[in-house]
Amino acid sequence: MSDLREKLFYEKKNGYDRIDTKERLAIEAYCRDYMAWLNVSRTEREAVANAIVQAEEAGFVPYVPGMPLKAGDRVYKSNRGKSLMLAVIGKKSLSEGSVIAGAHVDSPRLDLKQVTMYESDELCFFKTHYYGGLKKYQWVTIPLELHGVVALKSGETVDIVIGREPGEPRFVITDLLPHLAQDQMKKTMAEGITGEGLNILIGSAPYADEGKDRVKLAVMSILHDMYDITEEDFLSAELVAAPAYDVCEIGLDRSMIGGYGHDDRVCAYAELRAIFDVQEPERTCVCLLVDKEEIGSEGVTGMQSAAFECFMSDLCESQGVALRHCFENSFCLSADVTNAFDPNYPEVSEKRSESMLNYGVGVCKFTGARGKYTTSDASAEVVAYIRRLFEREGVLWQMAELGKVDQGGGGTIARFMSKRNIDTIDAGVPVLSMHAPFEVVGKLDCYMIYKGVLAAYLDK
Ligand code: MN
Ligand code: MN
Prior knowledge:
The protein is α/β, with parallel strands linked by helices. 27% of the residues lie in helices and 24% in strands.
């Protein structure tokens, strides 16, 4: 390339051409830890519970309203066990703003209905109501495991995990054999498998008596033996079926990671690791692991909930600072995954703008759909700040856009942060097969979002 071209043109470079051996080793070590964490963090509740254990090891203590706080103090607040806020108090006053990184820990999945169990033709099933945007045909004929809680009338809560450990039974949704599928195969992919057709097979052996629903009785009696619950207890349960795939390396070069729930636990884990590395920051650092992003950030544990204001105003009040002044001067990295360009489906992408695997953090100035509808659209100044920060700190990154104009679209928590008068930009890991039961990410990109969040936390 001529000097003039090099000087004037913008050209993306593969991340592997821009790292040294030392960084390559750091990527491997980081990703080993991430894979182990993702393997045991299959729901928002499990991600939050695991994060709390690690946070306490890293010196974080539960925040108690009114507790005195000084620079370097590390506190966390669990919002009903389904979302988590952590903070490391900065040397500067909160009137100068905080540095926030926000990721979500919920992922698309199949929720069990409240009246879920039934027997049909001597087979027993759970009925489901899917959660988040998923392609239903991807969820049949794959092994499923069960996670969640049953809240009892007594006030006690029973934790349930079946199928995660080797040797435990798993579950499945059946599909038609091709021999008899000629009518099904004429349907569109959206219609071939229906929402009410996502019924999970959970048993087939009848109870040894003469009554009705003998298979269901046998299954229910097993659950009663294991957890001391009855069918009525499902009314107040939150149980989800998640893919029973282990997280693993992908490719002969082992450069990628396959697994369920990279969206968005890959960024959640990065934020955790980054805030654990922060000691006495200039500005207060806040790490958010939120729930309900996949269904619009609604609900008391989603980013639209006032739980965030409650936590932040507590921190502000301890310094005599008005929350609105803190928000106005804060910066938020909305760390959420983005679409990676897939050469198998180039028709949905505009290659110049799409993020590529192994090119580093994908920075989305805007998301949305149909002419940038429902996006916060970060200002040019905020993008310039990211350019400055990431270049200075050696964070490999690229611009990202979710597909061709009018091809579809999406959203993140960014718009709910910007509504609070906080400068916000999306930045995250490019994903192949996003929202599938088995998603793929590049190891290099996983590490770079960690580096990116840490750079923001440590910026003066
Ligand atoms: Mn996401
Ligand atoms: Mn998503």
